[in-house]
Design brief:
Radius of gyration: 32 Å
Number of helices: 20
CATH class of the largest domain: Mainly Alpha
Number of strands: 7
Structural class: mainly alpha
CATH topology of the largest domain: ABC transporter involved in vitamin B12 uptake, BtuC
Largest sheet: 5 strands, antiparallel
Order of helices and strands: HHHEEEEEHHHHHHHHHHEEHHHHHHH
Distance between the termini: 91 Å
Strand order of the largest sheet: 4-3-2-1-5
Oligomer: single chain
Helix content: 55-70%
Length: 532
């Protein structure tokens, strides 16, 4: 009980001490504000953190009547709501004439950033302390080094300790004059991929206007050059890994877009030029699902995936029943008919939904990136789409290998006449195959809605790539589609830095044309009766 009373009296005492400072802050000129902020930090400690953060964000105000410090938040209707800075008590939508903003300039912003970092360094959680060290490292001074050195003595988190040690070593490298200290700092920074470390090392091997090294000690220069060589080697390795990831990511998108086309062409021999519009329908289904469940955006994709499969599958079934079935055995007419259908579907979207792109919200769990190191990070949406594409691929493979529908599909694709003579309803198989391929394209649209614009023309961006994948991998061969998609995706990403995106696509297309001249049936041609 006494400890509780003591704590309460301390809080009251703190409130009494900061009250005059808060009043002074509302009246102070910009040149005097920094001094008041220092006093607030010394007196209020961590309790002042909300005030400093809101002031840095430009959201700090005070009421003209009683100088009460408040902050501003805009609600969903863009209405300005005000809250007490310490108690968070709502004050409602105050008239602009009743409040005044506490101004900040660039000098005060720098001061506030350092103050916030200093408080978080000593009192924050692991993540906040690490963020504070990074902020202080941006502009190192002797004062910030003293604070970091003091924090290092009590720091127990490994990542935070490592960040502090690197900051101290970086400052030592930049300011020290003696050789042993510089060599120790270089050793401490060994392997770091932080751009600030590399820039600091580069300065030590620069030459002045007379052509002489700025760093006079040869031992230091040799150590720096060895470390720079090590860093550049690691940068190249992670650059290669990054290109591979981007290639696999692009390949996963092509895989999702192409596997539906692969089975429809493999079974029915139909080049469906409206396949891209099935992708578009899936993306717009995602948009519609999010409109229907605005309060459950985090779960919307789990509803959108089966919904897109059903909607696109039903549309595909209708197209097959009304158009494709009546053009069987006439590939050129089928090609032209499906091209016409693609134009009709695009115009229908423009007329009934919108000609402009529609916004699709990315759930929070798919936002952001996984940072491996300062120069290499993987975006979560690309990771999830890569995993999702493989799940869809193996699920489709299981359907074709383990179900009655899959058995019938394989039978029809190998020998339609024989399958029909054995009692398999080939017309029904065609309908289900086209619906399945269209449904998978719809699922691809769900994934694509998370990484690209959702608009009437979005499917056109992937139809050519899908055909290239199917032809390159081997018509009707799902494994060939998998290998083809990832091969073309990786090839594109490795060519793009040297040639640009457009020329890279052209070069890949030329390669496929030349490849097909040598292997007309693709990488993995069908064998046995299916090859006839």
């Amino acid at each position: 009980m006494p400890s509780s009373t003591s704590s309460t009296s301390t809080n009251v005492q703190t409130a009494e001490n900061i009250a005059p400072l808060l009043t002074a802050l509302t009246k102070a000129k910009l040149s005097k504000s920094a001094k008041i902020l220092v006093q607030l930090e010394q007196t209020g400690g961590t309790a002042m953190l909300p005030l400093f953060e809101q002031m840095l964000n430009g959201k700090l105000y005070y009421q003209r009547a009683d100088a009460q410090i408040i902050y501003q938040v805009k609600d969903s209707n863009d209405t300005k709501q005000y809250f007490d800075i310490f108690s968070k008590a709502p004050l409602g939508a105050l008239d602009s004439s009743l409040v005044k903003k506490i101004r900040v300039n660039s000098k005060l912003r720098t001061h506030l950033k350092n103050t916030i970092a200093r408080i978080q360094l000593n009192h924050g959680n692991d993540e906040e302390r690490l963020h504070a060290v990074i902020k202080l490292t941006e502009k190192l001074t002797q004062a910030s080094i003293d604070e970091l050195s003091a924090a290092l003595k009590t720091e127990v988190n490994g990542k935070v300790r490592e960040a502090i040690e690197k900051a101290i070593a970086l400052y030592q490298l930049q300011t020290s004059e003696d050789t042993p200290s510089k060599l120790i700092a270089i050793a401490a920074l060994s392997g770091s991929l932080d751009s600030k470390v590399r820039n600091a090392l580069l300065k030590l091997v620069e030459k002045n206007s007379e052509g002489k090294y700025i760093e006079k000690d040869r031992k230091v220069r040799v150590a720096v050059q060895a470390e720079l060589k090590r860093i550049d080697g690691r940068i190249k390795i992670f650059g290669f890994i990054e290109k591979m990831f981007f290639g696999l990511s692009a390949g996963s998108v092509l895989l999702l877009a192409a596997i539906g086309l692969a089975i429809t062409f493999g079974v029915m021999g139909v080049f469906n030029m409206a396949h891209g519009e099935m992708i578009m329908i899936g993306a717009y289904t995602t948009y519609g699902v999010q409109l229907l469940m605005p309060n459950f955006m985090e779960y919307s994709l789990f509803v959108a995936i089966p919904a897109a499969f059903l909607v696109a599958g039903i549309v595909g079934m209708i197209i097959e029943a009304t158009v494709i079935r009546h053009l069987h055995g006439r590939p050129l007419e089928t090609l032209l008919a499906t091209f016409g259908i693609s134009l009709i579907l695009q115009q229908a979207v423009r007329s009934f939904i919108s000609a402009t792109n529609r916004p699709v919200v990315t759930p929070e769990w798919m936002s952001g990136s996984l940072e491996i190191n300062p120069i290499f990070s993987l975006t979560y949406n690309r990771i999830y789409i890569l995993i999702f594409s493989l799940i869809v691929f193996f699920l489709l493979l299981t359907i074709l290998k383990k179900t009655a529908l899959g058995l019938h599909v394989r039978a029809v694709s190998q020998n339609r006449a024989m399958a029909k003579s054995l009692g398999i309803r080939t017309a029904w198989v065609d309908s289900m195959t086209f619906a399945l391929g269209s449904g998978i394209a719809g699922v691809a649209g769900v994934a694509l809605s998370q990484i690209t614009n959702v608009g009437p023309n979005m499917g056109q961006d992937y139809i050519i790539g899908s055909f290239m994948v199917v032809v390159f991998g081997g018509v009707g061969n799902l494994f060939g589609t998998l290998v083809g998609a990832f091969s073309l995706g990786i090839a594109n990403k490795f060519l793009e830095p040297a040639t640009g995106a457009v020329l890279a696509n052209i070069l890949v297309l030329v390669f496929i044309i030349l490849f097909i001249q040598r292997r007309p049936k693709g990488l993995f041609p069908q064998k046995g009766r299916a090859a006839d």
